[in-house]
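Action item from last week, closing it out:
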Amino acid sequence: MSTFSDNFDKIKTEYETKRANAIKDAEARTMTLHAQYPALKAIDGKLRATGINILGEAMKGKNGLEERLKALEEENLELQKQRKDLIEALGLPSDCTDPHYECKECSDTGYIGINMCRCFKAALAKCAFENSGLGSLLKDQAFDTFDLSYYNDNPANHERMKKNLEKCRIYADTFAEGSPNLILIGATGLGKTHLSTSIAKKVIEKGYRVVYDSSPNVFNDFNKEQFKNESGLTDKYFECDLLILDDLGTEMITSFTVSSLYNLINTRLNTGKCTIINTNLSIDELRKAYTDRITSRIFGCFEPLMFTGKDVRMQKLQKNL
């Protein structure tokens, strides 16, 4: 997984390249127009000489410098007017020799003054989406697409899921360092993945590093590091701002995976990193599957959200039959 620094460097290089290409294209267009319209070339030549003329006047001394510079300024303004009138007379676009930048706000520099342009922030967010592990889930899973009508069969379920939706929305909107940890508990197909993905999307857009992966994949990486000497595979799980551990309990539960899970949870708690756990196991099943050290850390440091109702995936399937 790429780090924020890797993503930043990648996007920065892309911006430098597209800005350079825009300038190169503008220069090529200008050369073509100069060959076609000598009068335009002559005016541009005089305008380019302005800097040299200013330097020349300055070297003559301070006596009368202000008047000489004012005369150069007036000459420059007159040349600009002649250029504008000529381009209009030729029926050319007013920006025919300007670089055509993708972002008109920052001219493809990525910054407006010292502040990062919104286009650069969006590019960083897109890169973060691609490296988060969420893949195609981000395309159609958002808070606005979470359909509470699938829980209408039971008023208690509907009310619970309505509260879960609101809690998750607020969690994403207010996410910051030190935000609480969550554990989403419930049977398969009740919306845990949908809501945790929705949280991830919002948090990534705010500029935080998010990793989303299934429990089997996570502990497979721990296994490779420990027994196959593939270093660096698990760094992302410890370093990201928000880790979403999906399907806890579906991994092969061994003394090694239990130890790795404790190390992961405990380290993230001690470093103030936020974690969301999704599991199909009940509270009793979690206690049976894992040691007291782990369950006491989870139930003591994670806010539980209980998911109830009928399998939404099956309901959607039945609708399409």
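Closing note: The CA atoms of residues 13 and 215 lie 35 Å apart.
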